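Page 37, continued from 36.
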């Protein structure tokens, strides 16, 4: 930072100083007049210290990109948009991050204090009230000299315990205010904890004893495994006793290659995972809510007498929807370490797979073989199973897959091989659509050396398709595959099975997304022949620019009654 800046800082300088202090690399957003002191600080000295802005075409997409950055890096994402419309545009992206427990800091400016409540342009909007339901902490800062203090509190809240978004609101005159002299900046380790807490030792030992007494225990891995960076501990834990393992959607890439215990997921909607639940005599769930992905832990998929050990960083999630036999509040990584240490004292490792694990793996293999005909079909229109199979075969082992859509998501999550940490990104808690291109931008910035591919429905892709220009401007190559069936597929399935084919507001006219991509200066190609999918993926990758493959697929309906979802969704 230039010497003169040390003598006189604006509020904008203080915001950027707080972000640099936390090693924030990017601020995702759209500029606005009340934000210019922050932008000016980045221009004058921030870039020299490693921080920059990423300009989007819509603030919602900026919030999604900050969310993706946090998911991929395991650090906080930061986004900002101007007072009024900028703040309201970001709200959907923050709600999606909140629902999936992702740490994002959203910064909004406000009109000057003396312009509040007088009908000033973009003013008179209670931005704190708007964000309150979807953030863990928020503060409107009314003194320039307290900006550092409150941003540091925001970082502490976002990253401690259960990670979630936080909101900082700063009036324009506070951002424009000046502070004289050198302002000391406290290092992060001095204002927030570096790690979370282990579990209660007595409860951990009780859980281990129950596990050792069980004949057919089943492990469920949720997003808390990824948040705690506990993938290695999870692998060692299930291997030690040859345990069976399924995942939730948020935990779908928490399994490492070579984890032979994995028998299905995500969720409990496939026949082999349902078989595991019907036969198990003990469930150990790590870092997951008992929401839709786990069918709320309720009958008919869950037996009422099935004992549950639930480990989670958030005490409010334990015992929610389903009673527990043992509830342990703690960081998944630390609790797994505790359990492993106890196991090693109480029992030697099991060297060979148990009969039950073999049976479940056979069921998984049978289920997988049942998909082969559709996965290899040459039918036209292209079957969605064939499309996902071609994508999965093409991608590198450590590629990052972004799933955006309802209809195509069922096939993608069913078939994509997930043996790599943070491989699959999906806004599952809020079921948000329109994330594919913004997530890809945030992901490619976070992991420039990893292959990035999005799988989107033709409904979802249109929500933020304008961000192809953003991706092209920043030279971020990724592949966006659009599964095009000219419909809101999930809703159309519901109308077919639950409303006797009374279709309304679910069909689109045909749209050529490849031509749209070309209009943005990106690579675009439309595919109607299943045998052209792989060559098109190769051409898209060789293009070295953002690429859109518009794949015309058959509309394949889902019978939600067979999945136990009909009453919940429709």
């Amino acid at each position: 930072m230039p010497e003169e800046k040390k003598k006189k800082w604006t509020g904008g300088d203080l915001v950027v100083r707080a972000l640099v202090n936390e090693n924030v690399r990017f601020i995702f957003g759209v500029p606005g007049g009340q934000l210019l002191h922050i932008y000016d600080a980045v221009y004058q000295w921030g870039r020299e210290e490693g921080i920059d802005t990423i300009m989007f075409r819509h603030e919602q997409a900026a919030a999604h990109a900050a969310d993706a950055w946090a998911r991929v890096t395991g650090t906080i994402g930061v986004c900002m948009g101007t007072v009024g419309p900028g703040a309201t545009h970001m709200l959907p992206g923050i709600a999606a991050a909140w629902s999936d427990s992702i740490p994002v800091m959203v910064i909004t400016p406000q009109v000057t204090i003396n312009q509040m409540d007088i009908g000033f342009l973009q003013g008179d909007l209670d931005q704190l009230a708007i964000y309150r339901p979807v953030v863990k902490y928020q503060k409107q800062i009314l003194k320039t000299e307290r900006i550092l203090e409150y941003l540091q509190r925001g970082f502490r809240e976002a990253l401690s315990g259960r990670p979630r978004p936080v909101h900082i609101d700063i009036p324009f005159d506070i951002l424009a205010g000046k502070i004289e002299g050198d302002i000391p900046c406290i290092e992060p380790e001095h204002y927030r904890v570096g790690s979370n807490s282990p579990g209660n030792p007595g409860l951990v030992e009780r859980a281990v004893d129950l596990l050792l007494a069980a004949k057919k225990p089943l492990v469920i891995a949720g997003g808390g495994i990824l948040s705690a960076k506990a993938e290695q501990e999870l692998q060692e834990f299930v291997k030690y006793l040859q345990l069976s393992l399924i995942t939730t959607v948020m935990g779908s890439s928490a399994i490492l290659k070579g984890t032979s215990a994995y028998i299905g997921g995500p969720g409990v909607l496939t026949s082999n995972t349902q078989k595991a639940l019907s036969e198990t005599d003990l469930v150990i769930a790590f870092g997951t809510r008992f929401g839709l992905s786990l069918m709320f832990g309720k009958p008919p998929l869950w037996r009422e007498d099935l004992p549950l050990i639930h480990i989670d960083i958030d005490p409010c999630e334990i015992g929610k929807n389903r009673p527990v036999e043992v509830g342990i509040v703690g960081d998944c990584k630390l609790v797994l370490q505790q359990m492993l240490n106890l196991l090693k004292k109480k029992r030697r490792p099991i060297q060979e797979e148990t009969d039950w694990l073999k049976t479940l793996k056979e069921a998984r293999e049978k289920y997988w073989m049942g998909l082969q005909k559709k996965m290899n079909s040459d039918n036209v229109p292209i079957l969605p199973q064939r499309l996902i199979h071609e994508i999965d075969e093409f991608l590198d082992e450590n590629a990052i897959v972004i799933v955006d859509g309802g209809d195509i998501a069922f096939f993608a999550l069913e078939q994509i091989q997930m043996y790599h940490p943070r491989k699959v990104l999906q806004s599952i808690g809020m079921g948000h659509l329109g994330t594919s291109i913004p997530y890809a931008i945030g992901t490619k910035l976070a992991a420039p050396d990893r292959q990035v591919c999005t799988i989107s429905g033709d409904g979802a892709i249109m929500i933020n398709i304008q961000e192809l220009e953003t991706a092209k401007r920043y030279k971020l190559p990724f592949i966006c595959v659009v599964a095009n069936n000219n419909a809101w597929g999930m809703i159309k399935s519901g109308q077919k099975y639950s409303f006797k084919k009374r279709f309304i507001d679910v069909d689109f006219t045909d749209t050529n997304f490849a031509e749209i991509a070309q209009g943005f200066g990106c690579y675009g190609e439309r595919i109607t022949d299943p045998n052209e999918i792989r060559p098109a993926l190769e051409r898209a990758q060789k293009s070295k620019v953002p690429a859109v493959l518009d794949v015309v697929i058959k509309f394949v309906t889902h019978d939600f009654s067979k999945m136990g979802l009909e009453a919940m969704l429709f």
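The mean pLDDT is 91. Flag for discussion at group meeting. The domain at 376-569 is CATH 3.40.50.970 (Rossmann fold).
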